[in-house]
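Rotation project, supervised by the postdoc (A.L.). Task for the rotation student: set up a whole-complex structure prediction and record inputs and outputs verbatim in this book. Inputs entered:
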Amino acid sequence: MENTKVIVGLGSCGIAAGAKKVFDKIETLKNDNTTDFKLSKTSCVGMCFREPLVEVIDESGYYLYGEIDEEKAAEIFEQHIGNNKPIKEYIVKSDKFKTKDDSFFEGQTKIALRHCGLIDPENIQEYESRDGYKALKMIPSKNISRLDIIQTIIDSGIRGRGGGGFPTGLKWKFANNNKSDEKYIICNADEGDPGAFMDRSLLEGDPHAVIEGMIIGAYAIEASSGVIYCRAEYPLAIKRLNIALQQARDKGYLGENILGIKGFNLDIFVKEGAGAFVCGEETALIASIEGERGMPRKRPPFPAESGLWNKPTNINNVETYSNIPWIIYHGAGAYSKYGTEKSKGTKVFALTGKVKNGGLVEVPMGTTIRDIIYKLGGGIQDDKKFKAVQLGGPSGGCIPEYLADTIVDYESVNATGAIMGSGGMVVMDETTCMVDIARFFLDFTQKESCGKCTFCRIGTKRMLEILTRITEGEGKDGDIEKLEELAMRVKDSSLCGLGQTAPNPVLTTIKYFRHEYEAHIYDKKCPAKSCKKLLTYEIDPEKCTGCTICAIKCPVKAITGEKKMPHIINQEMCIKCGDCYSNCNFDAIKLL
Amino acid sequence: MRIERVTLEKKEMIQEAVDLSLINPLTAKYKGKKGCMIPLLQGVQNIYGYIPREVIVKISKETGLKLSDMYGVVTFYSQFRLNPVGKHIIKVCHGTACHVQNADAISDAIKDILQIEDGETTEDGLFTLESVACLGCCSLAPVMMVGDNSYGKLTKKIASKVIKDIKREEKNK
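Outputs recorded:
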């Protein structure tokens, strides 16, 4: 029993689901009893839909328990840990038998997420025991030159995982070519896309992989200073990064003459972002590190030539860096064997929205969207009709159901009008209104526009006004055309990626769901029954039992009727709040 | 640009006298360092919960940072506040995943209970309500954070209960 290991998943989402309480419960039980086992923590294994997760590894095998609360934790403690009797009904994954959640892991190939959910992110030894820092150690032991590293990265075919898709190796080559007394390496961890949490999970689950990737990058381009620019909204990621950085310093992976490589000096610091989506754009991010308003600058010069403090700078995203040690350790060929002709390797997606198994998945490039949603994601919640999937956040677009066999690689996704983006994949069903989604994203980009370029600042505002009007039933003939024209102007006249891509959600929804726009404008109807002002609530007299609950709940007293007799809604008074609908116990309120 | 968050004119600032000496270690640490403005202001906000006017005036005098530059930075980033906030900050997530799972209903329910609008603070100074872009717990949507605690898979009822529980706790203190 002393060899039994109990590991609780303590990522941000696990904690939000109650994992800390479970951890505390098990710890208390451990202290109160004499049962001997090793209790530790890990981060997100990606199975967010089953959080909180508790893993028990004993002599007989490996068992992952899902949806555990304090009560169930006590049961596991008593029966499994105490009496070696695994509780099968709570187990979601095991090496002893099949479970219904196995399909979530089949089809996944974990490279970036190779350690997430398997190691204690606050313990450097656990990282080292799984080939951690071995790629870095190969540099002095095998005498690998800077150009060899860069060539390996070029050969691996990896492209920027932040969304741009620029070949990482080339980026490093440019930074290496520009000679300077000082160079910088930056990790972009300003994950601002609403609906994306890949980078957070990576930083919380495997901070050393990102740090090792940065150290290798710094060696390749001869940088002596590193910055991880992380959102302040990710306090746990920042905490774990700082712990990991200190451990790396103590072990000599950071500092002077690292691993005996003469003249290779590097330290890395975490810089907290202050909340501005545009800072995900590399020049805006640099401005923000310099302490200014995060407004993009003109390129060229590109950061590889003149970046932070006007010195050559290399910026990559979290996921890109976490792949680097694996590529160096296993070789370019091991990586490039995954993927398609132009997009190599794997990609992490945050699968969310109206999907049964929401979570973090990593698949080889070239997997179809349908497979991700149905095979890994288990299909649509409540078995409703799958309508569209949103890729790439506010810069991306909505891909309709009939294009779900599109494969994920940079070119194929771009061809649909969406973008690969950083990996947010939000699934939408028949109850999601596509006009409202377009309005939602425009509302976001409009607020986050830094204001530098006129079309991005004012154009997005005008587009938002039109979209809001349409969702409120005030749409006019010609609105769609006006939206399209404005969209093209905003795209053409913006300096940075934010403005150039802000109209994408509008353009793709018009392209694939024009009929929904038309229904809103001409018929004053919302086909998804989502836009409040276009709905009509009615009471079905056959089903109404006259229980009066709707009349009591109605905030404007628009519902009247005798007790035990069918009630009626006064349509002129109705404010369409939906309270009657959500409170009716007899399914008598109809949505028209 | 998030200009809506800055409500300097909207309300009479409830100004208590602030202890200016609290920032001395901060100015000593960052004075003269390049790129120090954001960490400095983040430090100020950690101390006071917002950025008091007299504090940035003092920083400007002591460090030579321009007042206009600081105001520019404060109003640019959504993290910074120019007004005092409530004891509990409620952040309702309005990321994409939460939006499709009807986060609006959660915000509405809380507005209803607390009788405040987005970005406002209750009269008793207990709660401030904010909408945020994404808390990164998308698979638990809809999500909100109160202080450092996150609550997932919310319904109107659960959200109301969380707020009411905190209210009751505060009363009993």
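Student's summary: The longest helix of chain B spans residues 156-172.
Supervisor addendum: The interface with chain A takes residues 1-2, 4, 34-39, 41-42, 69, 72-73, 76-80, 94-101, 105, 132-141, 143, 148, 150-153, 156 of chain B (CB under 8 Å).
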